[in-house]
């Protein structure tokens, strides 16, 4: 089984971090193919960054299709471009937020997603509502810029831990979801510290992708995720015209 793991931002170090986490949980017969977008923002923090990251994401899906992959994972907790990718592709496409909150729902009645900045909190809260977990989940921002997670002296880990502690004390959280792909390497350590399930979206998406492929299931192409209709696209978007 071949899983394509696409980082829709352009930071290769984040791609490598996500790839390490993916390979740590992948089954012995699963190959993780890691890809970094070659156009767009260095990190994705809110709707503007996310919109400009979608063309790079779709380019990676298209260009690597010739190599063959059985499913793809979008390694951003904003589920950047997820709907467009599902319409574009004939294989299962998974997002980190959807995968993580679904996994948390198996493990706890109440859980908290701890993410980076307030602008991301609002976006992720909307996703959690959409995925049907609004009554069970709270979303918190820890006031960390995504790129600070790459800087050992930024104080980001201390901020993250402080917000997790508030979630446990104030929200009655029974589990914690890490709301950024840049946090993926922290899940096991934080779980050991706090004694509750700590869910990383990368790991959750890998195992769910493996399950879907093993079951012989893929995205329905009837209705919402039907393949795009052929039509002219002009200007910088001409390369994305459906054929």
TrEMBL record:
Pfam families: Asp_Glu_race. Its EC number is 5.1.99.5. PANTHER family: PROTEIN DCG1 (PTHR28047:SF5). One of its GO terms (molecular function) is hydantoin racemase activity. InterPro entries: Asp/Glu/hydantoin_racemase (IPR015942), Hydantoin_racemase-like (IPR052186), Iso_Racemase_Enz_sf (IPR053714). It comes from Rhizobium paranaense. Belongs to the HyuE racemase family. It comes from the Bacteria. It catalyses: D-5-isobutylhydantoin = L-5-isobutylhydantoin; D-5-benzylhydantoin = L-5-benzylhydantoin; a D-5-monosubstituted hydantoin = a L-5-monosubstituted hydantoin. This is Hydantoin racemase. Keywords: Isomerase.
């Amino acid at each position: 089984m071949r899983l394509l793991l696409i980082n829709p931002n352009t930071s290769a170090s984040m791609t490598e971090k996500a790839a390490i986490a993916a390979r740590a949980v992948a089954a012995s017969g699963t190959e993780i193919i890691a890809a970094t977008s070659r156009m767009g923002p260095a990190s994705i923090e809110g709707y503007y960054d996310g919109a400009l990251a979608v063309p790079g994401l779709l380019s990676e899906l298209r260009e690597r299709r010739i190599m063959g992959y059985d499913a793809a994972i979008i390694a951003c907790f904003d589920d950047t471009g997820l709907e467009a990718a599902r319409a574009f592709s004939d294989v299962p496409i998974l997002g980190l937020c959807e995968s993580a909150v679904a996994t948390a729902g198996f493990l706890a009645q109440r859980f908290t997603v701890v993410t980076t900045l307030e602008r991301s909190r609002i976006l992720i809260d909307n996703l959690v509502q959409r995925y049907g977990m609004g009554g069970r989940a709270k979303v918190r921002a820890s006031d960390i810029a995504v790129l600070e997670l790459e800087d050992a002296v930024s104080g980001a880990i201390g901020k993250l831990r402080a917000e997790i502690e508030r979630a446990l004390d104030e929200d009655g959280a029974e589990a914690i979801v890490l709301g950024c792909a840049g946090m993926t390497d922290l899940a096991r350590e934080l779980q050991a510290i706090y004694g509750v399930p700590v869910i990383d979206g990368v790991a959750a998406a890998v195992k769910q992708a493996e399950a879907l492929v093993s079951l012989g299931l893929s995205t329905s192409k009837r209705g919402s995720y039907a393949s795009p209709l052929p039509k002219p696209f002009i200007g910088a978007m001409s390369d994305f015209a459906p054929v």
